[in-house]
Amino acid sequence: MIRKSERGQDIPEGMVIVPEGQFFMGSTQQDIAKLLESDRNIEAERLENEVPQRTVSLNAYLIDKYPVTNAHYKLFVEAGGYTQKSLWSDAGWQYIVQAKPLENNELDAVFHGESDCPVVNISWYEAEAFAAWSGKRLPTEAEWEKAARGTDGRIYPWGNEFDKTRLNCAEAKIERPTPVTKYPQGQSVYGCFDMAGNVWEWTADWYDSQYYRHAPDKNPQGPGMAEENPYFGRPEEVGISIYDLKPSPAGRA
């Protein structure tokens, strides 16, 4: 989650500053070829949305140093976050009314899992509401990517060579979320942890596989509308919200 960075502002605890400036966003064909060579299980079609690589300029911003933990999300739940309609977009409120996340087992890990592990099984709407409750917002894809890889186009937060000792990944054979502080050797140049590995993270943007081909080169906010059914896996892998409900424009971060 992020906040706008004001000149002379003190950096809040648990956040880092990403300074104003340009960075390389997306992947080159050489990057993709290298990745496919190292892991032949990856479907090449999944990487086509990362080209062309381009230079993007962003204003300065503050971003959380760690993913949101079970302990932090539990505070949101216990503070009545699921009953405060003002925190939710209209579509988000519709989602929780229909899905009733407090009445099923989707939040079990929040209450019974390790407190310092990242929260999981949270929809985009819940992430959006939690960010609002925290006085922050979800990062755009561009903001997330710059915080993850710096300005030089590196493939991983630490550099260009894969290293299974720097992240929670399939090769590490852990097969469960790990505490957000477990991999200091994997942090990005700005000091962000778990920008590779561990769990997937939400950004504010709609998704369009062709967006990189026509996106603005300064503070891109994502497509104006979502691509129709962009994900070709099973709906349960990403949550029903991608298919059944769409955030209202007023609810976008």
UniProtKB/TrEMBL annotation:
Molecular function terms, GO-annotated: formylglycine-generating oxidase activity
InterPro entries on file: CTDL_fold, Sulfatase_Mod_Factor_Kinase, SUMF_dom, SUMF_sf
Any matching Pfam family: FGE-sulfatase
Domain Sulfatase-modifying factor enzyme-like per the UniProt entry, residue ranges: 13-222
Protein name: Sulfatase-modifying factor enzyme-like domain-containing protein
Stretches that traverse the bilayer: none
Superkingdom, natural source: Bacteria
